[in-house]
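Case study 2.
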Amino acid sequence: MSSAFDACARTVRELRESLLELEQSAVRLQLGPLAGREWFRLLEQKLLPQMTDSAYLVAAVCGGTNIGKSVIFNHLAGTKASAVTALASGTKHPVCLVPTGFELHHDLRSVFPGFELTPWESSEAALRESDNSLLFWRSSESLPPNLLVLDSPDIDSDARVNWDRADMIRRAADVLIAVLTQQKYNDAAVKEFFRRAAAEDKVVLIVFNQVHLPDDEEYWPLWLQTFCTETGIAPHVVYLTPHNRRAAEENRLPFFERSLAIDESHSARSDESGEPNNNVGRRLNEDLSSLRFGEIKLRTLSGSLRVLLEEHGAAGYLQEVEARSREFRTAGELLSAHQLAKVDDWPTVPNSVIVQNIRGWWQEQREGWSAAVHGFYNRIGSQLTAGYRFVYEKVVGPSLPAITTYKAKEWDAVLKVVDDVYDRLQWFLELGNPLLQPRLNELLGATTRQDLIAALRSQHNSVDLEADLRELIVRELETFRAENPQFYKSLKQLDVVAAAVRPATSIALFVTGFGPVGHLATDAARTSAVHLTGDVVAGGITAAVGENWLSQTASTGAAWLEARFRRIHELFATRRATWIAEFLHQHLLGTLPHDLQMAAQIPEMPAFERVRSGLETLRSEVGLTE
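Prediction:
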């Protein structure tokens, strides 16, 4: 076999494996199976069997009456398999020789559909009259293992049934051996038969039989030009056989290959590269089974390969996968859990809670006598705050902790999320999207809204929001300490100075509203650097460290704290939104978003790329590149 045929066969095998792998992933796309597609049946039932080591050629000898078809048939068979006579006996039924054991591994009825297969008992059997379309066959040890040869009915016969049988042979054959003579190359019936062969893009080898050499060397190109012009045939190879009755009867005719070029007008001319084999007789069956097997077989399968590469074939299947994946991508984006759980007015954690946690972290950073001094006055502040709160609640009424109030607001937001999710799912269901409707029916029927809210309530109650917030704040502040070591050191030094003058500033702070009752202060006050440094504002501090230095440090700290405040709010809101999204994934949507995402990504998978690359390689190998 030719290297081109071997490479193409390897590509086809790899393409099939990649297609099967892609089909497994494409199950999510709800596409029809490959097995039900005509092009895939063609791939599995014709291309693959015909592109393996067991591939074979069906060569049919065709031509008019009494032109020596049986002679050519016998030379192909390598034995005197068909009767040879000078009389115009006329073959009525096709005769087939198959390699020994071929019928054990192949179904001859599928190779020759429409015929009644009959064992061949004698070479005269094909000459008898019968209204049935018989095909006589037998095994032959003289045949190469990859070659089946046929002697077809006379295509210029008056019997219409012979034409029908010849048509069935033409459709079953891989290569037609057109046997022509000086008298029969321009016969109307013969030309009609080969016009149909040209329309079917059949591989045709032309044998000019009974040629008088060297006298006819200047004439056969004219015969060929006329035949090709009238039929549209572009012969794969042209052979000449000499007029030698004894050699014909003894099965030793030489086949002289002629190099030629056929232009678009079907004009025949000698190949300018020369004809080195003009005087070397060739064996036709060896040429078909070995020398030219790969190129002929590739040519015979080119039609099937084109089907594979067309929009209705494997190339179309890739387009179908891409189009359906885009539909799933759109559906997935609509059903994204984060989109379903979107809330524009998610509650904000009170700044007082954040300030309290920042103060707690800063207290843990203090060391030695500074920590003792601040701790002592903070305890006094806490006692004062407790007293103030007692009086406040007596006058105004009891107040809930800020984090408790936040948690209640968050639950209201959660309920709104659930309502929105169910409303959107119901809307998608009513749209009747064939990709989503079955799954949405399943989802909405499996878990009632009441069950989902009950499970959500239980989980929400068990969450320690304050601990989550504290962990987030500590992480942010420690990041600040690592990223801003010089600024952190300055604040530490300022905190030590504040401890030294703490007795002179605490009352002033309390009076101005920035002290122990900071949870009642304004939002603007809470965002200043004073809380981070342990209530550092007063004339005593200004005198100790200098007004200019303090104003610059406080200004920088305020900017940093304001940015950190925003980030903490954003991160905490994101964390809580992620919690509700994950809950919906687990208890309502299940694997649906993931399945949609995986379906949308199928064109990005390696199997898809291997199929696409395999088709490109195949186009190049069979010369079908655009």
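The longest helix spans residues 547-589.
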